[in-house]
Amino acid sequence: MESCFDFSLCKKNGFKVYVYPQQKGEKISESYQNILSAIEGSRFYTSDPGQACLFILSLDTLDRDQLSPQYVHNLKTKVQNLHLWNNGRNHLIFNLYSGTWPDYTEDLGFDIGQAMLAKASISTENFRPNFDVSIPLFSKDHPRTGGERGYLKYNSIPPFRKYMLVFKGKRYLTGIGSDTRNALYHVHNAEDVVLLTTCKHGKDWQKHKDARCDRDNAEYDK
């Protein structure tokens, strides 16, 4: 951590986060814009890079699947041309999707250097403890809410809400992570833990369907 992160920047001005200005002509997905807006609306945000301890790219790195319409091309060159990049030192990169079908390798298409990685579905082999951040894979429709500037709206333990865990998405029948995803069905109790999954993924999903697929698909489509 000490060799990749300059703690002196934080000691000098406190924990301040700088978001790069959006570059002309660069498109940003709604999900990434929500992340940037949440940071810019927090008490940790600074518009002065000279005051910053942590740096966040305005280039959208969430979806690095080359088949996705959200994929940002030439990201390697764009990142290296940033004058504050400094080989990624004191930077945090956000990523939800990497690689493409059928292997979904964790190649982001550019060298993150010394940057920290906040990533969904990161493998234990690539995760760097006490440096990287494991984040959940969230929907583009996930609401962005909060209380006072930079504070949680609710801080009750346990929280006063009906559902403790809710997930609705695809259940991969084969490939990386399929064993883990297919083993989580027992957590679903249809009360405070709701897991709705569909086997309908790819063109040949029916060749791999298991005994739970018909029931799961029906629950998912309700």
Automatic annotation (TrEMBL):
Residues 12-217 form the Exostosin GT47 domain. One of its GO terms (biological process) is heparan sulfate proteoglycan biosynthetic process. Pfam families: Exostosin_GT47 (PF03016). Coiled coil: none annotated. Signal peptide: none annotated. GO terms for molecular function: glycosyltransferase activity. InterPro entries: Exostosin, Exostosin_GT47. Keywords: Glycosyltransferase, Transferase. Belongs to the glycosyltransferase 47 family. This is Exostosin GT47 domain-containing protein. It comes from Albula goreensis.
